[in-house]
Design goal:
Elements lengths: L1 H39 L2 H15 L10
Keywords: Membrane, Transmembrane, Transmembrane helix
Length: 67
């Protein structure tokens, strides 16, 4: 029984170690691409876009409660 558990753990370890770099590559490439895009766009433009998005999507002010 112990031998089966050891073989199963070895197979699981090899799967994880073998698949981890392949699974991580698209994520790291996406972050690199996002970093490249952010590096090209000037800071004031990003700030302006952020302010416009905040003004457009800010929550409505709470109505005062009248008795």
């Amino acid at each position: 029984m112990l031998r089966i558990i050891v073989w199963a753990l070895l197979a699981l370890y090899l799967l994880v170690v073998g698949l981890w770099p392949a699974a991580l590559t698209p994520i790291s490439l996406a972050f690199a691409g996002a970093g490249a895009v952010l590096a090209v766009i000037p800071g004031p433009v990003l700030l302006t876009v952020a302010v416009i998005a905040w003004l457009k999507h800010r929550p409505a002010p709470a109505k005062p409660v009248t008795a």
